Amino acid sequence: MMNYIVNWNLLDTIIFFCENKLHKVKAVVCDSKEAEPDVELMIQAETAHLKTENECLKKREMPAHLLEEEGEYFCPKCQYKQPDQHVRYCANCGHRVIYVSKRIV
User: What is the pLDDT of residues 25-72, one digit of tens each?
Assistant: First the structure.
């Protein structure tokens, strides 16, 4: 009968130790959720993201002339066939395109 009690105490000690560690981990996680993020770091990260996005948009804003081959029109960037010459943006890559007629006025 004595062995069960000794073994039970050992098992109970291990369970108690694990419970304490889990409670400490839970407290640390809860504290980290309540802490506010650093505002300056968030502003710097957002500024860098917006600069990158702005550069990508600037590249798309310079219109490219549609390519015409045998009455069909293609995007000069991705060679996607456009439905007609009056499109403003390529349906495939999103680049801004324009059609320039060859008529002399």
Answer: 998 888 777 767 788 988 999 999 999 988 887 766 678 888 888 888
Q: What's the maximum distance between 2 C-alpha atoms anywhere in the chain?
A: 110
Which residues lie across from 43 on neighbouring strands?
none
> Which string of DSSP letters, residue by residue, matches the chain?
-HHHHHHHHHHHHHHHHHHHHHHHHHHHHHHHHHSPPPHHHHHHHHHHHHHHHHHHHHHHHS-EEPEEETTEEE-TTT-PEESSTT-SB-TTT--BEE-------
Question: From CA 99, how far away is CA 91, in angstroms rounded?
Answer: 15
